[in-house]
Amino acid sequence: MRTGEWLAKPASRIAETFDDVDKAIAWMRSQYAPAVPHDQIPLSLRMDQAYDLLPRGVDVEWSTWLPGGRFAKVSMICCPNRHVNHPCPQSRNGQ
Question: In this predicted structure, what is the pLDDT of residue 91?
């Protein structure tokens, strides 16, 4: 599934909304913090890539396997989106 397909889901599935890249990445960092010690990719690299991709309308996902077979994932889906034509969920609902 392409990450942008999340835009077809109900707006109630949105955890947060940002118009500012710095705030979006700060939120991703706070949500992903418990997984960082288990991730082989440095957080600084993840953040650098997010600063490059998000302003261009490219979705960003950070994920890693955790002990015990658990999986952690944090996503930031851009709207408008570069790869899918779904309307923004909040604008669909008049928000």
Answer: 64
Cα 44 from chain centre:
16
Query: How far is CA 45 from each of CA 29, 37, 82, rounded to the nearest angstrom?
Result: 12, 14, 22
- Element housing 62 (H / E): strand 60-65
What does the alpha-carbon distance between residue 24 and residue 55 come to, in Å, rounded to a whole number?
11
Do 55 and 9 form a contact (C-beta atoms < 8 A)?
A: no
Model pLDDT for residues 6-19, shown as the tens digit of each residue: 898 888 888 999 99
- The two tokens of residue 49 are 């890539």
pTM, rounded to two decimals: 0.86
Q: What residues have CB less than 8 Å from 82, skipping those under 6 apart?
A: 4, 56, 57, 58
